[in-house]
């Protein structure tokens, strides 16, 4: 089992910045990829960014150049630095961990709200 706890959401004006954190606990050695997803009201959950255990990163086109994903292995934490925020970035942001055991298992955090005002 893996537990994920997100933090760092809040209300910010357009053009501002926020940094989200995702702390993992439990069987963290089984994790091979951590990602951030978001879900706006009335929309499907979408991928924002991922980082693998090898450090390979991936970004959605809509956040490329504005968001940066990183990790601190000593703190079992993955960060999402969000700069130049836009109102369309408003959503609940979820941390996701993909773990390998006998099968692929995905874990989700509880989500953190990000609201960008215009």
Task: Please describe what this structure looks like.
This protein is mainly β. It is 0% helix and 60% strand. It has strands at residues 2-7, 10-13, 18-26, 31-39, 46-52, 57-59, 67-72, 77-82, 91-100, 104-108, 112-117. The strands form two sheets. Strands 2, 4, 5, 6, 9, 10 and 11 form a seven-stranded mixed beta sheet that branches. It has a four-stranded antiparallel beta sheet with strand order 1-3-8-7, with no helix packed on it. Strand 9 (91-100) and strand 10 (104-108) form a beta hairpin.
What would you say about this model in short?
The protein has strands at residues 2-7, 10-13, 18-26, 31-39, 46-52, 57-59, 67-72, 77-82, 91-100, 104-108, 112-117. The chain is built from no helices and eleven strands.
Secondary-structure class: mainly beta
Instruction: Give the ordered list of helices and strands.
Output: EEEEEEEEEEE
Please bin the fraction of helical residues.
under 10%
Task: Categorize the overall geometry.
Answer: globular
Rounded to the nearest angstrom, the radius of gyration is 14 Å
Distance between the termini: 40 Å
Rounded mean pLDDT is 96
The poorly predicted ranges are none
Quick one: biggest sheet?
Answer: 7 strands, mixed
The tally of helices reads 0
The number of distinct β-strands equals 11
